[in-house]
């Protein structure tokens, strides 16, 4: 980012996207740091930035933080699902048989 005008334009473009939690811009390094939640789409954000700011370089560094509580909850949930599958037997129902029907054509009755 060279000047304040480009900085404000980039900030406006980013702020309109869904799932953005915070935006910080560093003029010295020429970087914008965007923090978002799980609803933020990085590919959509880069596409919009490249369309609106065609003569700028867009470099994406994604950092994901792993939450140990969520991992534990997911493991417990998967374990419970497996236990539930074992409790309920697989019930196979016979196929539904349609009753015979009558077709009438030109006054004659035919059974199929």
TrEMBL record:
GO terms for molecular function: metal ion binding. Residues 1-57 form the HMA domain. Coiled coil: none annotated. Gene3D superfamilies: 3.30.70.100. InterPro entries: HIPP47/16 (IPR042885), HMA_dom (IPR006121). PANTHER family: HEAVY METAL-ASSOCIATED ISOPRENYLATED PLANT PROTEIN 47. This is HMA domain-containing protein. It comes from Oryza meridionalis. The lineage of its organism: Eukaryota, Viridiplantae, Streptophyta, Embryophyta, Tracheophyta.
